Structures are given as C-alpha cells and as structure tokens.
Amino acid sequence: MEYTNQQLINYVSRIKLTQEKKNSYASQIDNLKNNVLKAINGMEKTKVTKVRRAGSWKKGTALESKGDYPLDIDMVFYLDLEENTLFDAEELREEIIKVLCKAYPNKQGSDFTDGQKTIGVVFRGSGLEVDIVPFIPEKGNTTYGRQPRKKLHSGEFKTSVDKQLDFVSKIKGRCSNFTSIVRILKSWRNYQELELSSFSIELAVAHLIETGRISDFSINQAIITFFEFFGSGNPVEVYFSCAIGPRAGSAPWIADPTNNENNTVSLSEREWDEVVEVAETGFETISYAQTVQEAGRTLNLWKEVFGTSFNIQEEH
C-alpha cells in the first residue's frame, strides 16, 4: 500500500529538529559565535563583517541529534582581509582553537577536528556539532566569495552562501514537501550508514523537482523516484542553469547550485558504489511495498529501509 503524505509527515514529526530544541541550543551557539569573533578579530589584517548560519539548520531540513548523528550547523564568518593578504585556513584554525580552549577549559583536544569546511567543534552531551566556515567575499557588487574546500590544505572554491539559501527557498516554493522529503532521505542515509552528504541529498531532490520528476502529489513516490535516480546504474550528473561555471568533471557529480564547477559529492569509489547499491535496494523494497495490501507487511518493508524506529502513526 502507498502511504499518504500525512502518514509520512507523521514520521517526519518524530525525526525533525523542532523549534523548541532549536531554542535550547541558542545560548551555546551565541557563546561560540562570540568566542570565534574574538579569535578572528584578534588576528592581524583580518576582521569579521558578518556571521550567518547556513546548512540544514538554516534550510529547515535538520534532523534531531541521535546517537552517532549529532545536529550539525554551518556558521559562516564573512572575513574582510587587508589588500594582498593571503588567507591561511590552518593559521585561522589554530587561533580559533586557542581561544576556544580558554573559553571551554573542560573540552578535550579531540573536540576540535578538521570539519567539513574548516573547523569542527563538538559539544559532547548536547549532541551539537558546529562547522566554522570562513568566507572571503569578492570585492564589488556580488554575493560570491572564496570558501575553503572540504578538507584543509585542498584549496578553495568560489560560491555564494546567499544564493545557496535563495535557491533552497525557491525550491520550497515549488514543492511544499521538499523539507519532509529531504528529512526522510537523510534518516535513510543515517540508518544505512552512508557517507552521502546532506547537501548532496538536498540538491538531488531539488534537481528532481526542477525537472518535474518529483511533485507535491506524493511523498511516497518522491522517495521511490530518488532511490531510482541513484540506484538505476545510470551516471548521476546534476547541474543547475542558475549557476555560474561550465559543466565540469565526470559522474558522480552533483553541482553546487551557485557554481557548476563545485562538486558536492566527495566519496571514494567504494563509498559511491555502496550508495548506488543501497538506493537500488530501497527502490525495489519501497516499490514492492506499494503493491502489498497488508498494513503490517507494508510497515515492515519500510522498516527494512529506514530502520525499526520508522512509525507513521500520529503522535499524541
């Protein structure tokens, strides 16, 4: 049997980050922001002009922290560098960690890691992880700038945080179930222990919406379409007409919606093959679940893909 949108939204209500939970992190995040500002502004030839929250938190696709999957926030620090100053991500990281160690004397050295962008900060117990992301805006009337790549010392890429957020806002306007679809797929990614990034999932769903393959009509069908897209064995190449830059590279490629030259997929061949295999299984299982008439059997099939905590009953 096919689940209705409301049944699947009932599941989303169990896994999403609620506003109440967001509020509980507010003071922790503000304190971290102030300490990072202190660290950066204390450096020579570098000042912060703006701070923005980005990532799943800002886009409304975040899941509540659970087990090995903490709540992750991207905190973007816009930097004003003096003319001809070379940006050194490692130097910045060391300065920030120095200040944070003073501010949080009970934290361990392992709490400060190479994050997805530059510096990861882990708050043990609260389930919060923050990536501190330096961003150097271009001069002139543009929202683009330079941002470190996913690993330190691997260069920079040109992107626009503002345009990324605007893009997601427009996709939400086209498909009101966008955030629910993404959250369900992120819960699948977590349960299956895949390395596929949240950003790649969001952008793949956005691409399928833009090309008319996903609509508001059925979340159930949207999940099947996503699994088919990744698990069919066809090359996965996603580019956006609203982005700058030519098509670049070879599959798998899911472009940044602001610059087609930036690939959001950074997996090894083995990791990608695992995504394809698990997506194929998801497609077969959920497609079959649509043909089953028994409610209990349908639920068990979904649990095979999304885990034993999958539940479509309304919360009381």
Structure description:
The structure is a single chain. This protein has 316 residues and is of the alpha+beta class. It folds into 2 domains: 5-15 and 165-306, Poly(a)-polymerase, middle domain, CATH 1.10.1410; 19-159, Beta Polymerase, domain 2, CATH 3.30.460.10. Helices cover 45% and strands 18% of the residues. The chain is built from 11 helices and 10 strands. It has helices at 5-15, 19-24, 26-41, 55-59, 89-103, 161-174, 178-191, 198-210, 219-231, 269-291, 295-306; strands at residues 46-54, 71-81, 112-114, 119-123, 128-137, 145-148, 156-159, 237-238, 253-256, 259-263. Strands 1, 2, 3, 4, 5, 6 and 7 form a 7-stranded mixed beta sheet that branches. Strands 8-9-10 form a 3-stranded mixed beta sheet. A hairpin with a 7-residue loop joins β6 (145-148) and β7. The radius of gyration is 20 Å and the shape is globular. The mean pLDDT is 89.
Provide a concise account of the structure shown.
The chain is an alpha+beta fold and about 325 residues long.
Give the SSE layout.
Blueprint: H1 5-15, H2 19-24, H3 26-41, E1 46-54, H4 55-59, E2 71-81, H5 89-103, E3 112-114, E4 119-123, E5 128-137, E6 145-148, E7 156-159, H6 161-174, H7 178-191, H8 198-210, H9 219-231, E8 237-238, E9 253-256, E10 259-263, H10 269-291, H11 295-306
Parallel strand pairs: 2-5, 8-9
Antiparallel strand pairs: 1-2, 3-4, 4-5, 5-6, 6-7, 9-10
Helix pairs in contact: 1-7, 3-5, 7-8, 9-10, 10-11
